Amino acid sequence: MKKVAGAGLGALLLTPLVCFAAQPLLTVVEIVEINAKPADVWAKVSKFDGLINWCPPFAKSDIVSGKDGTLGVKRSLTVKDGPTFTENLLAMDPTAMTFSYDVDEPAPLPIMNYFSSMGIKPNASGGTTVAWQGSFKRRNSADKPPEGESDAGVTGFISGLYKACLGNLKTISEK
To answer: Which domains occur in the chain, in start order?
Structure first.
């Protein structure tokens, strides 16, 4: 009887994991090496409303509440020919050259529960390593969503965005 009850309890406890497994947390990490001093690269990326200065897919970036560089500041981002959404600065450490932020929900994006961080470090060749990581879930919870809304589709979307931004950051930092 205890084994049956234990098995039943185990199945009950695993049920949330099975449901969660249907909507996995997806992660993208993109890294770029830049031939510039870390402090110079940090100066470009650390301004929370300055994303449009180095990330070409965005047309507009404005502080809508709070003060740039302070925790809780909120920015409004507009994608070129696309939607507008808001993000919140969750952590910033100028000494370690790292920051983290999330997207307000609901957002008009194919992803949800988005959390991201960026870190700047000196590299062995005297330049800078920039790592940008994001975790999120796809918004469309269907078993077979359209390709652009699938796990591969939304992961590719975020990866492509990070690569475009980091590639441009490299270009403008190495001038």
So the answer is: 25-173 (3.30.530.20)
